[in-house]
Amino acid sequence: MRLHHVQLACPRGGEAEARRYWTDGLGLTEVHKPADLAGRGGAWFRAYDGSGGVTAEVHVGVEEPFTPARRAHPALLLDDVVALAETADRLAGLGFEVDWTERHTFPGHQRCHTRDGHGNRVELLAPIGADAP
């Protein structure tokens, strides 16, 4: 079994802010939604490895009434702590919340928690030590 995607929500009209977080901030690529689903709004994003394989997929769907996921969250694994720091800096530079409070609380990893432009929690982590690639 593998995870195909995770879904987060945004308010109606929130797609541009979702694009700013997922593409500008995290570097994912927006992909077209299937025609049968496109009319619902929202946006889909993918991350690819060096050979073009999909490594992560996030669907941002319109939800009314909208309530951000404040505790539940996806966790995205970055290659190393340098990539983690660079990504966190890029997000902070774009005005997104980045919290390093729990940086050393997940064994074998460093991590931070961020909030997308709608307040949804997203964890970013990278292996350290023996777990590093």
From TrEMBL:
PROSITE patterns the record matches: VOC
Domain VOC, residue spans: 2-127
InterPro entries associated with the record: Glyas_Bleomycin-R_OHBP_Dase, Glyas_Fos-R_dOase_dom, VOC_core
One Pfam assignment: Glyoxalase
Listed PANTHER family: FAMILY PROTEIN, PUTATIVE (AFU_ORTHOLOGUE AFUA_3G15060)-RELATED
Name of the protein: Glyoxalase
Species, as recorded: Nocardioides guangzhouensis
